[in-house]
Here is the input.
Amino acid sequence: MFYRRALQQLETWAQKKDRKPLILRGARQVGKTTLVRMFAKKFEHFIELNLELPEDRKVFSKDLSIREIVQSISLQKNVPLINGKALLFIDEIQNSPQAVAMIRYFYEEYKNLYVIAAGSLLEAVISKKQISFPIGRVEYLFLFPVTFEEFLHAQQNEEAIKIFQQIPTPEFAHSVLLKKFHEYVMLGGMPEIIKRWLETADILSLKHTYRDLFISYYDDISKYARNHSAIEVIRHSIDAAPLEAGKRITFHGFGNSNYRSREIGEALRSLQHARLIDLIYPTTSTELPIIPNKRKKPKLQFLDTGMINYSVGLFEQYLGIDDISSIYKGRIIEHIVGQELIALLAEFDRKLSFWVREKKQSQAEIDFLITYKGQIIPIETKSGSEGKLKSLRFFMEKSDSSIAVRFYAGNVHLQQISTETGKIFNLLNLPYYLVEKLFEYLEYFGL
Here is the structure.
C-alpha cells in the first residue's frame, strides 16, 4: 500500500454535506480495492463485500428493502453500519444488477452511511445487461495507473518528493528526477508491477507479472463478448493495441489482420469500456470549443506504458539512455505524456484531444490539446530546439491562444516565440516528469 492522489479526492467526497454513494471506476488492477482499504482506516466500522462471491452477492438477490439489506449485511459481517462512522464498500458490483439498482436507496435512506462501489468492466456490463446507475443519486471517481509523483511515494523517496513539489524545481535536481522518470516510464504505473520491482529490482522477473495482467484482461473482457468470433477479435485487439499505441490507427485490418472495420470497431469499444485503451480523436479547428472529429483516424492510447514496453520488448533500450524521446521513434515519450495528461484532466472533468491539418501541400499535427482559462493550449513532446516546432508555430498563427507547452528533456524555461508573421506567444518548456504539475506551472508563470 502506498500513497495515491485519489485519497485526497476521497477525503473531499467524505466531507461533503450532500455526499452521494461513490462509484469508483477504472481498469482492473489499477488499485481500486487497495485504495478503498487504505481510506477505510479513517472509519470506526468497515464492511467490504465482494460481489464475485455468491455469499456476498445473495443479499441483493432477495426481494428486500434497503433497510433489510443494511441489517442483513451488518448481521452477516457482525459489524454495525448504523451507529458510528461506517464505510460500506461494494466491490465488483457489476456482478449484481440488483445491487446497482439499490445504490440509489442508500442515498435516499442512509445519508450518514458512507458507500463506495467499484467494479471492472462497468461500462461493458451496463451496455450488455441494459442496466444503469441512477442519475443524480451517485457520483463518480476514476482511478488510473500510478503517476510519477505516486511512484516517488511508493519508493518512499522523501527528498525527491519535496524537490518535485517545489515550484519551480531547482536545476540541480533535474538529472536525478529525470533518471527517476526514466525508471518510471520503463516500469509503467501498474501497482503490482511497482510493488514487485521494489521487492526485487529484477526486470526479468516482472515479465511474468506483465503476462499475468494481459491474461486477466483476456479472461475478463471475453466474458462480455456476444459470441466466439467476437472473443477472437477482442483477443487479437488486446495483443495488437500495445503495438499500435501512440499512433493514429485505421480500424480496417487493425494490427495486420483481415478483420473488417465493424468487427474491430466493436472490439475496440469493448476495450474502451474496460478502460484498457482510449481512442483520442482529432480536431481540425484552432478555436473553442474543441470538437473531436470522429470521421478522422483516432490516436490509440493504451492503459499503461510499462505494458507497451513488455509487449514490444523495449526494456533493454532504457539502459544508460539520456533522453527517452529516442525510444520507439518517440512514441513512448508521447504515450507517457498522454497517460499522465489523461489522469490529470480527469480531476477537472476534461478530455484530451489533438489537432491535425490534413492538406496535400501542408500537413501538420499537434500532439495534444487541452483547455485552460478559456484558451486552447497546444502541447508538444519534442527533444529538439524550438526552431523545429513548425506545426506548433502554424497552429499558434491560426489560433487566438497566447500559450503553448513543450515537454522535453531540459529544465523549466519560459520563452517568447514568434510565428512567421510576427505573432508573439509564450512557450512554456517543462521537463517530461512535470506533466501532472502542468496547471500549477501555468499559474506560477501567470499564464
